[in-house]
Amino acid sequence: MNTPLLQVNNLAKSYQGSRPVFADIDFDVNAHEVVCLLGASGCGKSSLLKAVAGLHPVDNGEILFRGKPLHKPDARIGLVFQDPCLLPWLTVQQNAAFPLTLQCETKLSQTEVQARTETVLQWVGLQSFADAYPDRLSGGMAQRAALARALVKNPDLLLMDEPFSALDAITRFNMQQLLLKLLAHRRNAVLLVTHDIDEALILSDRILLMGGSPGHIVHEWRIPMPQPRAKHLHELIEIRMDILERLSDVAGEHLLPNGVVT
Ligand SMILES: Nc1ncnc2c1ncn2[C@@H]1O[C@H](COP(=O)(O)OP(=O)(O)O)[C@@H](O)[C@H]1O
Ligand SMILES: [Mg+2]
Known about the structure:
Order of helices and strands: EEEHEEEHHHEHEHEEH
Oligomer: single chain
Strand order of the largest sheet: 6-7-8-3-9-10
CATH superfamily of the largest domain: P-loop containing nucleotide triphosphate hydrolases
Radius of gyration: 19 Å
CATH topology of the largest domain: Rossmann fold
Bound molecules: adenosine-5'-diphosphate, magnesium ion
Strand content: 15-25%
Structural class: alpha/beta
CATH architecture of the largest domain: 3-Layer(aba) Sandwich
């Protein structure tokens, strides 16, 4: 069997002087797979994603990317956060090209940088805004520019932390559809953090439910139904009910006698 693209083994982390934020985290992401980490706010999803990105040190365990230990950010892993984090003094084209301009090992020609950037801007439908500055973009457009920047090196793995949570419902739906369309062609693997059960059900091949304190993986679901998922509502509703039940179980672990969730 092929080695998974990403292997997370027995991972644990605490911030200085605090109790562990997550512990005993084990999961894999295979090539071309979309895995969602689903959980309530504060259960440690962002901390886990940052650790997996090599941005934060961990106390215990290991992260293997393509079978090798990962201790720092890797050029073959793209990142998208809730905040698009575009550089305001650069145009959309320059923002999308930014990771290529940082690439020191293989110097790309100006023509190559331009060609690659034009392609990703086309993928996300922003070619006519290539020369615009970020302050001219709507929230959805800014997030599309951030997606273009993350895809410009065609990473093997995209790590996404609540990438669509700040968007209105319609823009959010459009972004989810755009992501699915891109993945159908590019086939990047994705580890996406969300607190939205429906988003997880629409996008994922697998859902990992995270909860508890310290945060841990409570349960895993495979979502084998092909896209478009709207054609499989009946099966999805059953999984949704199961997720809700597990979520209330894990909240129950931390219920005070008066029923307040700690
Ligand atoms: N840089 C940090 N320093 C100290 N504590 C942090 C830091 N980042 C997150 N935390 C704490 O870790 C816990 C989990 O946070 P986070 O990973 O952001 O959860 P989630 O993304 O699931 O909402 C929270 O209690 C939060 O206050
Ligand atoms: Mg978070």
